[in-house]
């Protein structure tokens, strides 16, 4: 059993990756989280792109632990905001990780933006970095629309105000399995599967 | 004396335009503000560009009053935010016109953005629309850097956190005359001068 570190403290992301690996029939890999390894200094996410942040996090984690490390950086890119909040999605309100404040701010900023200009994409970059330094980085996108009020209790972040293309429900109203099938993070993680399977080798 | 309507309720903008016209020796034009004309329904600023908003405001004002109307739309375009807050500068925090909330939010969003990526520009589009529908629209830009704390009591909006290129002071530490000489709005208004002089005929 090869241990792979997912460089996150977000339990939902850990569950999500395990669920995707199981659904895709990847065996021989045990995914652990940051809670399962000794603490190490984590650099702040100051990159200008999702890819930069994902790689930096995975490099730090692989160096500190000697394990193959996966890290992701995700966010919502709103057309009417020229692709922002982007890499600042988790601290859009100025307070890191306050989902409700971030979502409320985005709704307020878009209050006067008409329906035809409310397009957006959830974007996820995922990186796998091996202890020898080898890097793989991929990007998944999920297009949709930012609506005007919250709906749904699944998911996290901006899920309650994002209706994916071809859907009438928000991504917070989809089941975890439905979300995995289409979501930005699901797509990115599946793009990483060939590299993860090699580890299991 | 030709009366020209500056479509704003902001007394500081009115004073600024009068000061620039006087400094440039434009006589024969009396600038009045929205406080000096009967109220008319003002459309919300929902354009995707500064130019769109400036023209829409001036068109509304010229139609409603029969006067030549000047309108501007201005904001700060931050490189690390892909040019946002942009047209949403005055309501960046979700509350329209709350300068302090907008500025605090921008500082919070840029807290982890390193010094070398804190470039920005103040941008102003100014439109002159005549009662016969003729339109002139121009754009002025003022490059600089967003610093990490407020300084200075002149100006308004994001002035206390913007240091123009070639300066060590913020634009809120410049005198009104210094600001007029370089600022985005000063540049845009000077680009409108030929069209304004024609009115004075």
Helices and strands in order:
Two copies of one chain form a homodimer.
Chain A: E1 2-6, H1 11-23, E2 29-33, H2 50-65, E3 69-78, H3 99-109, E4 119-129, E5 135-146, E6 162-164, H4 176-182, H5 184-200
Parallel strand pairs in A: 1-2, 1-3
Antiparallel strand pairs in A: 3-4, 4-5, 5-6
Provide keyphrases for this structure:
ITP diphosphatase activity (chains A, B), homodimer, nucleotide-binding (chains A, B), alpha/beta, Maf protein, 201 residues, six-stranded mixed beta sheet, hydrolase (chains A, B)
Q: Could you walk me through the main structural features you see in this protein, from its secondary elements to its overall organization?
A:
The structure is a homodimer of 201-residue chains. Chain A has 201 residues and is α/β, with parallel strands linked by helices. Chain A contains five helices and six strands; from the N terminus they run βαβαβαβββαα. The first copy, chain A, has a single domain (2-200), classed as Maf protein (Alpha-Beta Complex), CATH 3.90.950.10. The radius of gyration of chain A is 17 Å and the shape is globular. Helix content of chain A is 32%, strand content 23%. Chain A has a six-stranded mixed β-sheet with strand order 2-1-3-4-5-6. The mean pLDDT of chain A is 93. The A-B interface holds A 44-46, 48, 80-84, 86, 88, 91-95, 104-105, 107-109, 111-114, 117 and B 44-46, 48, 80-84, 86, 88, 91-95, 104-105, 107-109, 111-114, 117. Chains A, B: Its cofactor is Mg(2+). Chains A, B: One of its GO terms (biological process) is purine nucleoside triphosphate catabolic process. Chains A, B: This is dITP/XTP pyrophosphatase. Chains A, B: It catalyses: dITP + H2O = dIMP + diphosphate + H(+); ITP + H2O = IMP + diphosphate + H(+); XTP + H2O = XMP + diphosphate + H(+). Chains A, B: Keywords: Hydrolase, Magnesium, Metal-binding, Nucleotide metabolism, Nucleotide-binding.
């Amino acid at each position: 059993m090869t241990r792979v570190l997912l460089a996150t403290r977000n339990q939902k992301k850990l569950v999500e990756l395990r669920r995707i690996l199981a659904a895709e029939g990847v065996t021989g890999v045990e995914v652990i989280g940051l809670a399962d390894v000794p603490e190490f200094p984590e650099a702040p996410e100051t990159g200008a792109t999702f890819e930069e942040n994902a790689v930096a996090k995975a490099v730090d984690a692989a160096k500190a632990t000697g394990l193959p490390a996966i890290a992701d950086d995700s966010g919502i890119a709103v057309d009417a905001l020229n692709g922002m909040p982007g890499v600042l999605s988790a601290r859009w309100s100025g307070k890191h990780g306050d989902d409700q404040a971030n979502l409320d701010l985005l709704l307020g900023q878009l209050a006067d933006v008409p329906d035809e200009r409310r397009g957006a994409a959830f974007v996820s970059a995922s990186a796998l970095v091996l202890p020898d330094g080898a890097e793989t980085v991929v990007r998944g996108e999920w297009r949709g629309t930012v609506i005007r009020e919250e709906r749904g209790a699944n998911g996290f972040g901006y899920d309650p105000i994002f209706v994916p293309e071809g859907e009438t429900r928000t991504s917070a109203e989809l089941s975890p399995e439905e979300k995995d099938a289409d979501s930005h993070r699901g797509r990115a993680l599946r793009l990483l599967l060939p590299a993860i399977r090699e580890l299991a080798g």
